[in-house]
Amino acid sequence: MSKILGVVLRSGVVLSGIIITLGTALFIANHSLDDTSSYLTYNPSVIPHGNFPVTLTSIASGLASLDPLSIIALGFLVLLATPVARVALSLFLFAAERDRKFVYLTATVLAILLFSILATPLIPFFNG
Amino acid sequence: MIVLEFFLILFVASIAAGALGSIVGIGGGLIVIPILTLFLGVDIHYAIGASIVSIIATSSGAAATYVKDRITNLRIGMFLETGTTIGAIIGAAIAAYLSATILEAIFGTILIISLVPLVRKIGEEFPPIQELKGLAKKLSLRGDYIERDGSKIEYNATNPGKSLAGMLVAGLISGLLGIGSGTFKVLSMDLAMKLPMKVSTTTSNFMIGVTAAASAGIYFARGDVDPLITAPVALGILIGASLGTQLLVKAKNTAVRKIFALVLAASAIEMILRALGF
Question: On chain B, which terminus has fewer CB atoms closer than 10 Å, C or N?
Fold first, then answer.
């Protein structure tokens, strides 16, 4: 079981690395001599603060047109999924060991994690 | 500055951050944030977003190796993670309504004070074996791992309550300041639970990824995670972390503790400088 955990972690990391490398190569191919300032503008008064896709729909449509920034964002989301997968797999690990206390404990951590990743961005209070 | 130059500087700095971070159980924000704000003139919000990326990359990049070598204590990590994730959500929720300055000053001061007990046990290779009792016994917070010379190192955790309280604070700081607070996590396991140093840093490595993931959704949706910064940071960190993990497996606990003490001093100074407005 910890072998499976290792394989899942490694493939998540490698997959994310490949996707981000692809996006970076594509970006550099067309923009290597651009000035960075146009990509690093931060607008504190609007959400999102930058000029790049942050919603799943905008990332998906960006991917369809091979937009490098959307590809990099996808790579980051894959990377973000690996610690979540690690906690989820640990849940099975403890269940297989019939360790009830740790099944509850891990389920709590997983619930908090999923709540904060999926739900809190939708709650205005958290976006101040 | 042109894109290519920006990428290269950030990529090289991130390799160093990933290597160091994976050895001492921190996320690399210590290196990545000042490079971005002081050297590359990037807005602090993007630098904090980059720090979240670097924490998750360090944690996941190092995890594959540490799971295989079984140094990380998943039980202790998961137990303490309840504290950090709850702390992180509360921190992220109130971050927008609170000045970070006072917090940075407090956090920096705590780090400086904790150098004293850390330096006192600087030469300790393995902690004396503790009695397993109370909550630690109920949850079986113990473990063992095999050192490179083939010897089996066994240990029991003490003071789980104290350590959990430390983790709640660590989570709060993570959510508020967008840092992994790996230093705080390692300290809490090293000083309260009295685990071998390598167990503390690798378990912290597991935990910082989960804690950072808990606040990543909010930062990402706000638009604080700029892909132009994410790309060189993530790639550099992943490479650096795979180098660092190979070093850690072979390193002595005393060497790891010495490097950690230096990193702790540097983080404390950086925190206080930030609080003073640099």
Answer: C
